[in-house]
């Protein structure tokens, strides 16, 4: 699982800071999460292959989270894309994007499939044999969802050396891989667990931006491996959270702590602050394992 931050600042794009967009690589998928203005430039800059993006998840329809989408869709067309592109986002996104395409007489020559969201409950929006994606309903000034990406538990793997040691014939290997027990030369049963290795612990990633402090998301993201939670403000601006429906870094840390996350990544910083180091300092007073997102930063969580 690998996360590339393309942009992680609030509001307007600036010379050295970009609005929200990130790429999550998980079980051979490249999921694009949010698509602020300039996302396609950032994708080029950090050498993300356009052709590997087949699913785009949009949290909400504020410009700093989706104004890059019409441009990216249009570029896909110019690059001669023919594969389906799936877009998951709030109801209205289809109307917004199709109006752009219609006025410019630039319909895509590839299938553009919208999955419009309007539920206030968490729902399963994507599933294949290795990964699921669920929405995380957030509380913001407009209808907003975070997304919870979760690997499925992989099957146990056969330990050939151990199987040989037990005298299990290789004709049984396929059955053992399917979960059956083995039998040695004397006819004694060897339990499957003794002949196979534990699969790696499934990893998960929760993207939570934009939102006020909201404990209702805890059951959905419980025990998450990596939590990205917005921290627009420092503690000194906490009074702005209720009006703007954003969080402080300390509140993000409280969510990480209560969700039993292994790692918290902060982002969506207000551009009023000169340095982002203080976000980490304040969050660490509440939760020990904190990283700062920054444009171009890559987090590699291994296989
Ligand atoms: Zn917003």
From TrEMBL:
The EC number(s) this enzyme carries: 3.1.26.11
Active site: 64
Residues annotated for Zn(2+) 2 binding in this entry: 64-65, 210, 268
Domain of life per record: Bacteria
Alphabetical list of Pfam families matching this protein: Anti-Pycsar_Apyc1
Cofactor names: Zn(2+)
Binding site for Zn(2+) 1: 60, 62, 140, 210
The protein's name in its UniProt record: Ribonuclease Z
């Amino acid at each position: 699982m690998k996360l590339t931050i393309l942009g992680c600042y609030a509001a307007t794009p600036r010379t050295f800071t970009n609005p929200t967009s990130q790429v999550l690589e998980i079980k051979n998928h490249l999921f694009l999460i949010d698509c602020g203005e300039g996302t396609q430039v950032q994708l080029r800059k950090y050498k993300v292959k356009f052709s590997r993006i087949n699913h785009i998840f949009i949290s909400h329809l504020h410009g700093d989270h989706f104004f890059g989408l019409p441009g990216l869709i249009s570029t896909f067309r110019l690059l001669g894309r023919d594969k389906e592109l799936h877009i998951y986002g709030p109801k209205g996104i289809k109307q917004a994007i199709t109006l752009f395409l219609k006025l410019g007489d630039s319909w895509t020559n590839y299938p553009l499939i919208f999955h419009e969201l309007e539920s206030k409950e968490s729902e399963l929006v994507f599933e294949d044999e290795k990964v699921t994606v669920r929405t995380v309903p957030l509380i913001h000034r407009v209808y907003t969802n975070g997304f919870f990406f979760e690997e499925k538990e992989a099957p146990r793997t056969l330990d050939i050396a151990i199987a040989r040691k037990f005298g299990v014939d290789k004709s049984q290997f396929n059955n053992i891989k399917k979960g059956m027990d083995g039998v040695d030369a004397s006819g004694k049963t060897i339990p499957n667990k003794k002949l196979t290795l534990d699969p790696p612990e499934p990893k998960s990633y929760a993207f939570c931006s934009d939102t006020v402090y909201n404990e209702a998301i805890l059951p959905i993201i419980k025990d998450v491996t990596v939590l990205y939670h917005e921290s627009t403000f420092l503690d000194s601006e906490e009074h702005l959270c209720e009006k703007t429906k954003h969080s402080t870094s300390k509140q993000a840390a409280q969510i990480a702590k209560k969700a039993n996350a292994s790692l918290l990544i902060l982002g969506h910083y207000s551009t009023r602050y000169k340095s982002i180091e203080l976000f980490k300092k304040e969050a660490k007073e509440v939760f020990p394992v904190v990283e700062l997102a920054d444009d171009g930063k890559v987090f590699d969580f291994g296989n």
